């Protein structure tokens, strides 16, 4: 599995001939310095954790350009369809869908969801984490935006993820030390990649505190620069 961090919480994930984007916030993302065409080349799916602008990002434009299927919660799917996205596959928390070669499961996240229209916040379903499973590949868990919660233990028991994409930026998600506690207490990851940091001034400027909090633990921490790929 090849995972490329695109800044903030955006990732490109490639395995077995599949290419997907998660939370493709590219335009306006200070952490993204890559080539838009290269990042979106060959993608078949866009997975979205929740309905905030820094996670929905460029979904509408990318879906129209590529014909990719968007997978997310029902309310956000219906809103995206109203904006001209042709292929949506709506879900809700706890559900699993077969995307042809891999499955996606939506799990709980402790956050909020909604985007402003004409000064009014429009609710767009519940926030989620994403579980991606494919035969012969390590199970991937993108936490979405969340705080720690004890039911992470159930997510670990049910899905046994091996790779974690973990928000560490604080203020809008758990901070570095709490994120490290979540990883160490509830999961048996082979590798984790921190995210949701180093993009906007209110967030943590780097992953140093997370790396320090994870020292001595068997889980390997990868902190690629934006645009760098990690092979797992």
TrEMBL record:
Domain Metallo-beta-lactamase, residue spans: 7-196
Ion transport keyword on record: no
Top-level taxon in the UniProt lineage: Bacteria
Transmembrane portions of the chain: none
Keyword Metal-binding annotated: no
SMART domains: Lactamase_B
Keywords: Hydrolase
Protein family (similarity comment): Belongs to the UPF0173 family.
Protein name (record): UPF0173 metal-dependent hydrolase QO011_001704
Gene source species: Labrys wisconsinensis
Source lineage: Bacteria, Pseudomonadati, Pseudomonadota, Alphaproteobacteria, Hyphomicrobiales
């Amino acid at each position: 599995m090849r995972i490329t961090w695109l800044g903030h919480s955006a990732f490109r994930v490639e395995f077995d001939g599949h290419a997907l984007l998660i939370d493709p916030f590219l335009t306006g993302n200070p952490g993204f310095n890559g080539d838009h065409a290269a990042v979106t080349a060959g993608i078949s799916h866009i997975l979205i954790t929740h309905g905030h602008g820094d996670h929905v990002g460029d979904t509408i434009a990318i879906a129209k350009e590529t014909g990719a299927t968007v997978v997310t919660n029902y309310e956000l799917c219906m809103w995206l369809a109203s904006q001209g996205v042709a292929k949506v596959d709506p879900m809700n928390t706890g559900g699993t869908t077969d995307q042809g070669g891999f499955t996606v499961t939506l799990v709980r996240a402790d956050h909020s969801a909604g985007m402003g229209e004409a000064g009014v916040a429009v609710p767009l379903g519940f926030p989620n984490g994403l579980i991606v499973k494919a035969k012969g590949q390590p199970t991937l868990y993108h936490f979405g935006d969340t705080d720690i919660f004890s039911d992470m233990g159930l997510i670990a028991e049910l899905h046994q993820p091996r790779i974690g994409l973990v928000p560490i930026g604080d203020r809008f998600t758990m901070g570095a030390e709490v994120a490290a506690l979540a990883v160490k207490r509830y999961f048996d990851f082979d590798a984790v990649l921190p995210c949701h940091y180093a993009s906007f001034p209110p967030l943590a400027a780097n992953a140093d505190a997370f790396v320090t909090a994870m020292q001595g633990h068997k889980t390997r921490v990868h902190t690629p620069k934006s645009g760098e790929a990690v092979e797992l």
